[in-house]
Design brief:
four-stranded antiparallel β-sheet; single chain; 8 strands
């Protein structure tokens, strides 16, 4: 089977990511009621056309490192793996579902079924940039989440479940709140950009 016909998402990696520009933080167990601080580390590289590979790991003990594959659709890519925004959108939905399931299990809330449907809208001028030479710009316009729960529990308890899950979901927090960010560019071993906001 040719490379363009095989589709890759991810496999367990043999080793954790090994960044060269920063030192990953060691995991430090929190003491209740203090919050747990942790990080997710990623090292990724471009491997040809739009193909990317990356090793990612949550630094909490018990999480294995993963080798993930990424691509874009034809004609710019070869459609051999999910695009970056698919991972981004799936991560938002899966993170909220993790908190929903964790909370209803801990609170002994009876759930018959849980389903999430989500739409994320984006805007880009990438296609016209290629044709007309414009500067590339993009935006995330909105995230629309539908949580479908069947349960014999009273309505208020299920509403409280969603409220708590949304408040606990780190991905949803990042969507609803400005968070610190920084970007560095290392060109031929020399830092040429260092900005933050």
């Amino acid at each position: 089977m040719t490379e363009t016909r095989r589709y890759h998402v991810g496999t367990r990696a043999d080793a954790p990511p090994a960044p060269t520009q920063y030192t990953p933080s060691p995991f430090k167990k929190g003491r209740p009621p203090e919050p747990l601080h942790f990080e997710v580390n990623l090292v990724a590289e471009a491997t040809g056309r739009q193909k990317k590979t990356g090793t990612v790991q949550v630094n909490i003990p018990g999480f294995s490192p993963l080798r993930l594959y990424c691509d874009e659709q034809t004609p710019v890519g070869d459609d051999t793996a999910p695009p970056p925004l698919a991972y981004f959108c799936a991560g938002i939905g899966f993170c909220l579902m993790t908190h929903l399931t964790d909370i209803y299990t801990a609170r002994k809330i009876e759930i018959t079924s849980l389903r999430l449907e989500q739409r994320v809208r984006f805007k880009t001028n990438l296609s016209t940039m290629r044709d007309m030479g414009h500067t590339t710009e993009g935006e995330t316009e909105m995230v629309e989440t539908h949580v479908l729960i069947d349960s014999p529990e009273r309505q208020e308890r299920i509403q409280e479940l969603l409220d708590e899950a949304e408040g606990a979901c780190m991905a949803h927090f990042a969507l609803r709140n400005p968070i610190p960010w920084s970007t560095r560019l290392i060109h031929n071993g020399v830092e040429t950009i260092n900005r933050e906001g």
